[in-house]
């Protein structure tokens, strides 16, 4: 987080706190006469939110491009240990069709044929 983004964020938070305090004081002092907040408090709140947002965006890291193919390739190279969807892909209550096909193919070939793996 750079110095400028911290200053901008801090300035926006101070403005937001001031707008909140002003709204509180307005409701305490004028609770019977007016129901709506004055326009200057509303504008100050909106400007403070925009300034805080700009400060937070300035402090964020640069976005990295998304490439699902590269991400999936890295997971496969690591053996799938870091796969966040591993629990969804392992279905313990279901048959492993590929393993059952291999068992059936081995059974059909008979015990005399050795299969290279």
TrEMBL record:
Domain of life of the native organism: Eukaryota
Record has DNA-binding as a keyword: no
Main subcellular location: membrane
A Pfam family it matches: MMgT
Transmembrane segments: 41-60
GO biological process annotation, one example: protein folding in endoplasmic reticulum
Compartment list: Endomembrane system
Bilayer disposition of the protein: Multi-pass membrane protein
Signal sequence annotation: 1-19
Coiled-coil residues: none
InterPro entries: EMC_subunit (IPR053279), MMgT (IPR018937)
Cellular component terms (Gene Ontology): EMC complex
Keyword tags: Membrane, Signal, Transmembrane, Transmembrane helix
Keyword Signal: yes
UniProt record similarity statement: Belongs to the membrane magnesium transporter (TC 1.A.67) family.
Protein name: Magnesium transporter
Lineage: Eukaryota, Fungi, Dikarya, Ascomycota, Pezizomycotina
